[in-house]
Structure formats: C-alpha cells, structure tokens
Amino acid sequence: MIHSVPCVLAIYIVLHIYLLYMCIYILSYCLQAFEKFTTRPMMGRKELLKITLRKAAHEWKLIVDLRLTGNLHF
After folding, report:
1. Cα(44)–Cα(41) distance, rounded to whole angstroms?
2. pTM of this prediction exceeds 0.70
3. What is the C-alpha to C-alpha distance for residues 11 and 6, in angstroms, rounded to an integer?
4. Could you say which DSSP state residue 73 is in?
5. What is the pLDDT of residue 5?
6. How many CA atoms lie within 13 A of 65 on its CB side?
7. Are 47 and 55 in contact (CB under 8 A)?
8. What are phi and psi of 70, to 5 degrees?
9. 66 Cβ partners below 8 Å, 6+ apart?
C-alpha cells in the first residue's frame, strides 16, 4: 500500500517531535543530577585530612595483620 505524502510527512513530524521531547527529558534529568552534585557542601581541609588519616591507619593495620598471619602474598 502506498501512503500519501501528507500522511508520511505527518508521521515524520510526529516522530521528530517525540525524539525532541525525549532529548529534552534526558537533558533535564542530567541537569538535575549535576545540580545535586554541585550543590553538595564541600568538606574542609581538616575534615579531608581526618578521613585520609583514618583510612591510612586502617590500611596500615590491615597490612600489619596480614603479615603477622602470613596471608600476604606478592
């Protein structure tokens, strides 16, 4: 069956409108995610240093424990 030109053109326009709508929806979702990321309060140097030292102490303890138990393999 051969479609008329106005029918095909209408389907083409509807599909492009739908595609544009989906692009706008995805873009707005990404912008919301980025906005949440940028509005998060930043930690100060003191907080970051405390977290880093805590992690380093934990890892050092883990290394010492593994060497004492003999489960450390290189």
Report:
1. 9
2. no
3. 9
4. -
5. 64
6. 6
7. no
8. 80, 15
9. 72
Distance CA 74, CA 72 (A): 7
Amino acid making up residue 36? K
Summarised one tens digit per residue, pLDDT across range 37-71 is 666 567 788 888 888 899 899 888 888 887 766 66
- The tokens describing 26, both together, are 């995805």
SS3 49: helix
Tell me which residue of 46, 58, 6 sits closest to 66, measured CA to CA. Answer: 58
C-alpha separations of 44 from 7, 47, 57, 73 in Å: 62, 5, 20, 37
Residue 71 token pair? 């489960």
Tokens of residue 64, six digits? 């010492």
Name the DSSP class of 22.
Answer: H
Tokens in use for 14?
């509807």
